[in-house]
Amino acid sequence: MQQHLSIQFPSAQQIADVRAYIKQSWKTLSRSPADILAAAYDPKLERRENSPWLVYVSAKENRLKVEQSLQQILSQAEFNKLEIRTLPANISTIQEHGLLYLPGSYVVPGGRFNEMFGWDSYFILLGLLQDQELELAQSLVNQLIYEIEHYGTILNANRTYFLTRSQPPVLTLMVLALFAHTQNKQWLQSIIPAIEKYYTFWTTEPHLHPETGLSRFFDSGEGPAPEVISDEKDDAGRTHYDRVLTYYTTYGINGLDAYYDSTSGFTELFYQGDRSMRESGFDCSHRFGLFNLEITQYLPVCLNVLLYQMEQDIAQIYQILGKDSRLWCDRATKRSQTINQLMWDEQVGLYFDYNFVTHQRSQYEFVTTFYPLWAGIASQKQTEKVVKNLAKFLAPGGLLTSTIVTGNQWDAPFGWAPLHLIAVQGLSRYHYLPQAEDIAKRFITLVVQEFEKYGAIVEKYDVVKCSANVSDEILFGYSSNEIGFGWTNGVFLELLSWLENLKS
Questions:
Q1: If you write DSSP's letter for every residue of 45-64 in order, what string do you get?
Q2: Residue 179: is it exposed, middle or buried by C-beta count within 10 angstroms (0-12/13-18/19+)?
Q3: Residue 255: domain span
Q4: Nearest to 335 by CA among 308, 359, 353
Q5: Do the domain assignments include residue 404?
Q6: CA distance 401 to 72
Q7: Largest CA distance in the chain
Q8: How confident is the prediction for the chain on average, in pLDDT?
Q9: What pLDDT sits at residue 1?
Q10: CA separation for the pair 77, 71 (Å, rounded)
Q11: Measured between alpha carbons, how far is 378 from 182 in angstroms, rounded to an integer?
Q12: Domain tally, the chain
């Protein structure tokens, strides 16, 4: 293992200061119909000055009732700044993008992410539960259920330009975490149709790969992602797409023809890969080919472990409600066997994503190798081999996302809160407690150190330099390091709780 951080683990007072910041941040990061103007604000899109903020209401909703309820809680001046529209059945006809209406309170990550994000919400929920924010936690889960019922799935986030994709499936983890506090069986029974609808979204085509029974990420939209064109620009005004093209042409990368035509520009294959990468949550990396553009050819470790966990969770929900859970247990068993068969590399001792076109594992070392440990899919021997490779990922401030520096934020030298929690819980599950404790302490120390410098908690960190100042190192996608920050808050509290339980 690498050396411990030179600075000491934070004092009780230092940790208390961060906890106080997190506690007050839930209010700052909360959105509801009462502050729908704050929710409608979108820093990711350009907007005509003085034009109203657009809010789209599901066709299943009574738009008139929604308007009346908003008029009751907003001033007339505030209401006049909104334009409420019914979401068209054919979403490809939407010319002007806007907020997707949600009837209750939810929590946004922070900064440019002023929406309810799919997988962020799980880690946010853990923080809310640690902070005894039970009412807000319940509402957050209810809004995700509402998205399934009214918009077809849990969305990347609640804007119209996200309607074509989801994010990593963590709903049932949230449901069971909340149920542990509420014990509300009636509610649990009522949301089973939505849970099963969401499971079907991930386990039917185009997400399903029929030959293996495993799933992939796939965005059903076409053309460039609107938020990338408007917002993901560097100091020279070049979009992420401009910079990717420069990279390809500068380095003479083979295969450019599939993604770029000199007369017509980027191909639909390029945009399909780029959009689908955004469903994965890992935007950007070179994990699924350069800039993740080959992602639709891959069966990812992370996604399929999450679907295994979802099958296990649904089985548990059925058992709680006295229903027959054997079908779900069988599905989980089958999936875990296929994951180990296709994704485990015995020689290297790591789990890798599987390319179903080439019938080969990727060999791209990525911290999602800890997901099978987190879910209990790995054997003790497999876990031993993964732990022997831990040094590849270990850095002074925690875990590297990958072992390669690419200029992408989901590669080295960057580390992200959710992946730290999954690794710590995975190692802990197999009783590698010293390693898990070491990682948790490194990351907590880093978060506290940077909080004391900047007075904020951020989205991601350079775990090599132990710094929140990352913008100059990120060459693709968006380079900002957003403040808030929802999932870092949640993971910080969860890791603290884990360390306290370890002591006792």
A1: S---TTPPEEEEE-TTS-HH
A2: middle
A3: 226-292
A4: 308
A5: yes
A6: 47
A7: 67
A8: 96
A9: 40
A10: 10
A11: 32
A12: 3
Residue 444: its pLDDT value, please? 99
Question: Among 376, 411, 433, where does a domain finish?
Answer: 376
Q: Answer whether 56's CB lies under 8 Å from 101's CB.
A: yes
pLDDT, tens digit (0-9, with 9 covering 90-100), for 369-408: 999 999 999 999 999 999 999 999 999 999 999 999 999 9
The residues that bridge with 83 in the sheet, in sequence order, are 54
- Calpha distance 195→214 (Å, rounded): 18
* Domain-ending residue, one of 248, 274, 292: 292
| Among 42, 133, 231, 283, the one annotated catalytic | 283
Residues 404 and 462 in one domain: yes
For residue 335, pLDDT over 60 is answered with: yes
User: What is the reported pTM?
Assistant: 0.97
Q: Is 459 a catalytic residue?
A: yes
Query: Does the pLDDT at position 2 exceed 50?
Result: no
Residue 165 lies in a domain: no
Give which of 173, 203, 201, 383 is closest to 304, Cα–Cα.
203
Residue 3 pLDDT greater than 90, yes or no = no
List 219, 232, 365, 459, catalytic entry: 459
Strand bridging mode 106-107 / 208-209: unpaired
Indicate if 411 and 433 belong to the same structural domain. yes
Are 414 and 369 contained in the same domain? no
pLDDT at 5: 46
Q: Select from 4, 32, 160 the least CA-distant residue to 96.
A: 160
Which residues have a Cβ under 8 Å from the Cβ of 329 and sit 6 or more positions away?
A: 311, 312, 315
Does the pLDDT of residue 255 top 80, yes or no?
A: no
277 to each of 65, 122, 206, 346, 494, how far by Cα in Å? 37, 20, 15, 27, 28
262, amino acid identity: S
Residue 497 placed within a domain: yes
313: phi then psi, degrees, rounded to nearest 5? -65, -45
Closest residue by Cα to residue 244 from 254, 256, 235: 256
Question: Are residue 418 and residue 469 in the same domain, yes or no?
Answer: yes
Task: State mean pLDDT over 348-363.
Answer: 98
Phi, psi of 404, rounded to the nearest 5 degrees = -125, 135
Nearest to 224 by CA among 281, 292, 271, 157: 271
Residue 313 belongs to some domain of the structure: yes
Angle at 477 between CA 475 and CA 482, to 5 degrees: 100
- pLDDT value at residue 7: 58
Told to judge if 78 belongs to the known catalytic residues of this protein, a careful annotator would answer: no
* C-alpha distance from residue 504 to each of 132, 177, 427, 497, 501 (Å): 21, 22, 18, 11, 5
What does the pLDDT look like over 164-192, one tens digit per residue?
999 999 999 999 999 999 999 999 999 99
The number of CA neighbours under 13 Å toward the Cβ of 210 is: 2
Report how far residue 120's alpha carbon sits from residue 167's, in angstroms, rounded to the nearest whole number. Answer: 9
400 with 443: CB under 8 angstroms?
Answer: no
